[in-house]
Amino acid sequence: MEFGIVLPISSQRLGWDTILNIAKEAELLGYDSVWVSDHFISPSGSVYTLEPWTVLSALALVTNKIRLGTYVLCNQYRHPSLLAKMTVTLDHISKGRLDLGIGAGWIKAEHETFGFEWKRFNVRLQRLKETLEIIRKLWTENNVSYSGQFFQLKNANLQPKPFQKPHPPVWVGGNSRAIMHIIAELGDGWIPALPTPTQLQEGVSLIEELMKDFGRKNTRLQVAFGGSGCTVIAKDSSKVEKLAEPLVKSMAKPIEDLPCIVGTPEQCIRRIKELQKSGAKKIVAGFMDPPSLEGMRLFAESVIPHFK
User: What are the sequence ranges of the domains in the chain?
Assistant: First the structure.
């Protein structure tokens, strides 16, 4: 089991210095990765959001070992050829520490507010599929030509090729069966949106079965669980309840029914063991208490060692 942290890049009250401090501390504490989201307007409605690729590029130069990922990029915002060039560049800058997480896009308001085209779900899915086909070709082939519904390339030769061989891991976000088909054909990992353990297990089973149909019998599916603001940990239950109040309010569920990792260290360990049994191989924690580092430190000291 690996452990990462989602950096809170959509919080005006924190700012860059706090983001930088959290990332550096995460590496010192032994976390495997840090991740960033990709929004113009965050799911909580915040219009303060930093651009993820710029953030990761800066972090690549002030960290040494920790992996850098997107949780997840919105496919609507970047042409696949540009995205392929961006990933290769950051993969070289970080000396092979990049994970590419990407999804079809799901917040209509930020598309319409900032002038990005918003189409029905199956159209966005087809765009995502074409993007993944194109970037894989550009990463691994020369003189790439491609004729799709949305994108066309003619004798495109992307150089240099990725630092990681054959290329950075590709994670695809989403819970629909259609997304699972795309993962099975073109993805290396799955980033679902806070499924129950049963939903997680069913999704893993379906994707792995579909991978066989696509001739990927020997490909091992990576599975992550987590997201921004999904992790609450404290030594005593009263503090857990106080920290979890925003989650209880936003999700309209009692604390014991939250689809998150919430509780004392012992409770968090039990929850992660349940997720691990259902197929999760990576926990990506989004702590609720920044700018404090107490939560991530307590998690690193009291939870992570049980899975190493």
Answer: 2-229+266-307
**46 within 8 A of 10, measured Cβ to Cβ:** yes
Q: From the CB of residue 244, how many other CB atoms can be counted at a distance below 10 Å?
A: 21
CA torsion sign for 176, 180, 183, 186 is: negative
From the centroid of its chain, how far is CA 123?
Answer: 22
Beta-strand pair 33-36/2-6: parallel
* CA 15 – CA 276 distance, rounded (Å): 33
Per-residue tokens: 190: 């799955």
CATH superfamily of 2-229+266-307: Luciferase-like domain (3.20.20.30)
Do the Cβ atoms of 63 and 129 come closer than 8 Å? no
Buried b (16+ CB within 10 A) or exposed e, 146-159: beeeeeebeebebe
CB 161 within 8 A of CB 140: yes
Query: Which amino acid is present at 207?
Result: I
Q: What is the pLDDT of residue 12?
A: 79
In this predicted structure, the answer to whether residue 218 has a pLDDT above a threshold of 80 is no
How far, CA to CA in Å, does 286 sit from each of 7, 9, 114, 172, 183? Answer: 7, 11, 26, 18, 24
Per the confidence metrics, is the pTM higher than 0.90?
Answer: yes
Each residue's pLDDT tens digit, 12-50: 788 899 999 999 999 999 999 999 999 999 888 888 899
